[in-house]
C-alpha cells in the first residue's frame, strides 16, 4: 500500500474556532445570547485533549469504519489502525442502526516518555510531543506499529445517527458512556459564563496533574435545538468554542551541557539550567536530544534561552535568545570519547545519535541492569536503581547474569536491606527465571528490538538457541523484522561476550524457551506468526478449511481467547469467545476482511 483510501464524512467534521483569553470568551457568550434573542443558555465544558480527531462508524452496533478528520469533508480511512486502540469498543452495549461518533485519539504522558526513551536508545529521533506521536502512530501503514504505540481515545460527540434522539449534548455524552465508549468524566454544566471562566482558570492550573495533555477547554451550548439554530460557518460551529491555554514558556540560562550514556551506548546531551518554574514544577535540566539539534539551534553554554515543556512533560530548549549574547558563550561539541569510560565514540550512518563503543562501559552496564529488571522485561520486583547502584558499588554484580548468583548474605549486607527484604528479592529473582522467552529477549536490550519485536521473535524461533543461530536472510523474511532489526540481532549474537552472557544466564537456571516441535515454513506469508481464534458459522469455508488456510499461510489457530491473540475471525452467530475477545480489545475480522487479508 502506498497510502490510505479516503472516506467522506456523512456530516462535515468541522474544527473549532479558538479564543485566547477571557475577553474573547465573553465575546463568544454575547454572540450566542444575541443570536438566541437572550434565551437562557446552558453550557457544557469539556477538556480539550491534545491529540488527533477521528470519526468512528457503527452499523447495528459493530465498528465498521474509522477515519481522520482530514479537511472536514473527507478523511483517511484508518480503520485497521483504530481497531488496535483497546479503549475503542468493537461492539456497542447499545443497539443502534447507525451511529457515527467523534473522538480524540491521544497518547498518555507515561507512554510518550517510554516511547521516546526507546527511540533514543535505538538512535531514532524523539517525538516532539504526545500529539505528534499520536497522529504519526495512527497514520502508519502497518497496524502493528500503531498497536505498539498504546494509544487511547476519548469520545466527545456525535456525527450522524439513526434510531436515537437527545435533547442536549450532555444527554448524548451519558448515552455514549452507557454504550461502552470512553467518555471523559471531567465535563461540567454551567448556566453562567462567569462560572465557565472560573472553571477555565481552575483547569489552567490543574492540567499538569492529568495523565494526558490538554491544551484548553471546549465550551458548547448544551441544547441541541439551540445548536441547530446557531448553525455553523464553513469552518466551525457557532455553538462551540475552544478556550486555549496560553503556552507556558520561561527564560533561563544554560549553565552547562552534560552527557548521559544510555544502555545501548547512546550519548544524550542535557542542558543544566538556572532553576526556573515551568508547568507546575521547578526545572533545572532540559533535553537537547542530539548534536543535530544543538547545531540547528546554535545552542551554547552561557546562552539565555526560552524553555517550555514539550507536551507539558519534557523540559526542552525552544529558542536561543541571541540578542542577549555577550560574547562569552561557549560553543559545544559532542565528545570523541565516552565521558564515563573514555572509549571511542562513533556515529552510525542514518542515526542521529553518537554511541560509546565499549560494551563494558559502567554507565551502559548500569542502564542495562535497570532495563533488564524493569516491568516489561524480567520484572524483578524490589530491585530498584538504588539497590543496583549499591550492588555495583561493592562489586557484587557486573552484568545481568550476576543477579542470579546473589546469596542471602550478599543482600543483607546492603544498606536498607533487612532479612525480609532480602528474602523477598531473592524470591523475585528466582521467579523471573521462569519468564517466557519474549521477556528475556526484550530484557537483553538488543538495539531496535522492542517488546513487540521480542514477542514476534520468541513466537517464530521458540528458543534462545534457535534465535542465536538465525541468519540475517531468515530474519528479514519475518513480518515486522526488517533489515535494521535483523542486522542488530545478528550483530548482537555475533559478539562472543554476549554469547557468554547468555550461557551464564542459562547455567543459573533462567528459562531459554522451548525447542519448536516443528520448524516453521520459510518465506514471507501474509499470516506468518499470526494467531487466530475462529467463532461462528462461515459462509465460504468449513472450520477445517479455514484452519488449513491459516496454517498454510503461516498462521496458527487456537481455541482459547487471550490477550496474545492477533485476530478473532467471526462468522454468523458467534459464541462467547467473541464477547470475551471484545472485552480484551482483540481485533475482529469479518469473513470479507479475512478474504482481503489473505
Question: Key terms for this structure?
Answer:
D-amino Acid Aminotransferase, Chain A, domain 1; DNA polymerase, domain 1; alpha+beta; 22 helices; seven-stranded antiparallel beta sheet; five-stranded mixed beta sheet; 5 domains; 598 residues; single chain; 24 strands; OB fold (Dihydrolipoamide Acetyltransferase, E2P)
Write structural notes for this entry.
By secondary structure, the protein is of the alpha+beta class. It has 5 domains: 6-244, 2-Layer Sandwich (D-amino Acid Aminotransferase, Chain A, domain 1), CATH 3.30.470; 249-346, Beta Barrel (OB fold (Dihydrolipoamide Acetyltransferase, E2P)); 359-432, 5' to 3' exonuclease, C-terminal subdomain (DNA polymerase, domain 1, Orthogonal Bundle), CATH 1.10.150; 437-508, 5' to 3' exonuclease, C-terminal subdomain (DNA polymerase, domain 1); 531-597, Rossmann fold, CATH 3.40.50.10190. The chain contains 22 helices and 24 strands. The strands form 6 sheets. Strands 12, 13, 14, 16, 17, 19 and 20 form a 7-stranded antiparallel β-sheet that branches. A hairpin with a 2-residue loop joins β4 (52-59) and β5 (62-68).
